[in-house]
Design a protein that fits this description.
about 80 residues; mainly beta; SH3 type barrels; five-stranded antiparallel beta sheet
């Protein structure tokens, strides 16, 4: 029997989001939502920059992490042509 190292999907996912400075949606188990950018992470926690300040969130409290869907700002309606 071959001993396989455990598969770690979190590290490459978090690393790419941090490297690209991607805005992420973090949903906690309490259903609270946080929108920010990943600054650091380790085996137990993620540091998220939210509104210019850093928040440390323990991974066991996270329900999901996904890249934020950025919707374009609505353009003001152009005035009618004369």
């Amino acid at each position: 029997m071959i001993n396989k190292p455990p598969i770690n999907v979190q590290d490459p996912f978090f690393y790419q989001l941090r490297k690209d400075n991607t805005l992420v949606d973090v949903v906690l188990l309490s259903e609270r939502k946080r929108l920010g950018r990943i600054k650091r992470f380790d085996k137990y926690a993620v540091v998220l920059e939210v509104d210019g300040r850093e928040e440390m969130i323990y991974k066991h409290a996270i329900a999901s992490v996904s890249p934020a869907v950025v919707r374009p700002a609505t353009q003001p309606a152009a005035p009618p042509a004369p």
